[in-house]
Specification:
CATH class of the largest domain: Alpha Beta
CATH topology of the largest domain: S-adenosylmethionine decarboxylase
CATH architecture of the largest domain: 4-Layer Sandwich
Shape: globular
InterPro entries: AdoMetDC-like, S-AdoMet_deCO2ase_core, S-AdoMet_deCO2ase_CS
GO molecular function: adenosylmethionine decarboxylase activity
Family: Belongs to the eukaryotic AdoMetDC family.
Helix content: 10-25%
Number of helices: 9
Distance between the termini: 28 Å
Structural class: alpha+beta
Largest sheet: 8 strands, antiparallel
Number of strands: 16
Keywords: Polyamine biosynthesis, Spermidine biosynthesis
CATH superfamily of the largest domain: S-adenosylmethionine decarboxylase
Order of helices and strands: EHEEEEHEHEEEHHHEEEEHEHHEE
Strand content: 25-35%
GO biological process, one term: spermine biosynthetic process
């Protein structure tokens, strides 16, 4: 998932794990002053202004799809999503993600009349090659110090094994007295911090009542599947130079869309709900953004989200192979008629894992506490249900999941997909809850 000019050659290993920055300037599009719909706020910023910011970060725009609620930019190093009230910047390699923050704040103030930050999130998996990073990204402490200078009320966490697979998070929390979106970047507030490693969940086929978050209006939901040690057969699809005759020139978008169809990426969500943008890199690598209309009334009510995204990025080289999947569409924890053919969490995990066949993977579900608390009324919180779904999807043989074979891509190349869980942590933050788990493939 990197841009390499045709006359250049790769220089050493490539850092697949991304730096993920998410900045909210208001709780929803409806909270933007003078808003009249989903095309106001940050979506009014011209493309060339975003390109100016991305020059600081050291990446380029390759293409863009415009949805009813979000603009999805495919970048030379991952993705940029722009909604009226929120920006998500995800970059890999040695990009300088955090150096773009001051410019983003200027753009929001000057071009969208959004002078204050409601919430900020910055997260990443542990780097494979930290010594290759530049600027504040050379060390987690440097990244924290950089953000603290802009957001003095922020808090930083390391989740997972410090000497193994772990996930890093920096988060700011709006003060209760200004919960309407007028929060200053440095507003302090009390946080409920409760790291819990619960092991009392031996899942079976009889799941508890489904936690279906698709009926909630105001919660925020993001699932990430971060995969390493991809199987050689899975990586081979993304070795572009092996599939393009020397006399032919690669057409990056058409090749990537055909590949998406071939290996089952098009089948992750119903095609009639999905607009897919994809790009094949040369000599290797793949990126895609998709916009998903998961509500029939998407785009009609600024206070009600109805369009989400997923994004996939693949670095297939042996020795540092990596693939990431991220999605913000609320998923039920088991099949539900209310979900309008949106896959449940277990089914989606199996679909993604069967495509990339990783030796190791990290899963995170980040959900706003309101959605988590509402789910508790049905007897199980969203993060508890997610942990159960993670384990059931990955540690049980395919035939015992209650998932039909047609629900998964047919091309698995003999891949069993049976894992053992190596870590499980639930966290409560200020306004958000996290389910974190790591797995490795059973031999």
């Amino acid at each position: 998932m990197r841009f390499i000019p045709a006359n250049a050659t790769p220089t050493g290993p490539f850092e697949g794990p991304e730096k993920l920055l998410e900045i909210w300037f208001a709780p929803s599009p409806a909270d933007i002053p003078g808003s009249s719909g989903h095309r106001d706020g940050l979506r009014r910023v011209p493309r060339e202004v975003w390109e100016d910011m991305l020059d600081i970060v050291k990446c380029k725009i390759l293409s863009v799809i415009q949805g009813t609620e979000t603009d999805a930019y495919l970048l030379s190093e991952s993705s940029l999503f722009v909604s009226p009230h929120r920006l998500i910047l995800k970059t890999c390699g040695t990009t300088l993600n955090l150096l773009g923050v001051p410019r983003i704040l200027e753009i929001a103030r000057d071009h969208a009349s959004l002078p204050t930050v409601y919430r900020l999130f910055y997260s990443r998996k542990a780097f494979m090659f930290p010594e290759r990073q530049l600027g504040p990204h050379r060390d987690w402490r440097e990244e924290i110090d950089f953000l603290d200078r802009i957001f003095p009320g922020g808090a930083a966490y390391t989740i997972g094994k410090v000497n193994g697979d772990h996930w890093l998070l920096y988060i700011t929390t709006p003060g209760e007295e200004n919960a309407d979106g007028g929060t200053r970047p440095n507003t302090p507030s009390e946080r409920a911090i409760n790291g819990v490693d619960e092991e009392a969940d031996t899942p079976g086929l009889d799941d508890p009542p489904a936690v279906d978050l698709t009926d909630e209006l105001s919660h925020d939901y993001t699932i990430e599947i971060l995969m390493t040690q991809l199987s050689p057969s899975a990586c081979s699809h993304f070795m572009t130079s092996d599939h393009i005759p020397e006399a032919e020139e690669l057409e990056p978008t058409s090749h990537a869309l055909a590949l998406s169809q071939e290996i089952g990426i098009n089948e992750l969500f119903p095609s009639h709900l999905t607009t897919l943008d994809a790009y094949s890199f040369q000599p290797c690598g793949y990126s895609s953004n998709a916009l998903l209309k998961w509500r029939d009334d998407a785009g009609t009510n600024p206070a009600r989200n109805g369009e989400g995204y997923y994004t996939i990025h693949v670095t297939p080289e042996s020795g540092w192979s990596y693939a990431s999947f991220e999605c913000n569409v609320p998923l039920p924890t088991r099949p539900s008629e209310q979900a309008k053919h949106i896959p449940d969490l277990k089914t989606l995990i199996r679909r993604v894992v069967n495509i990339f066949q990783p030796g190791r993977l990290t899963l995170t579900l980040f959900v706003s506490s309101e959605g988590n608390n509402n789910a508790e009324e049905d007897g199980e919180s969203a993060v508890e249900a997610a942990q159960r779904a993670f384990k059931t999807a990955l540690t049980m043989p395919r035939g015992k999941l209650g998932v039909s074979a047609s629900a998964e891509p047919a091309r698995t190349d003999g891949f069993s997909g049976v894992y053992k869980r190596t870590d499980k942590i639930n966290y409560e933050f200020g306004g958000y809850d996290l389910a974190f788990a790591t797995f490795e493939l059973r031999s």
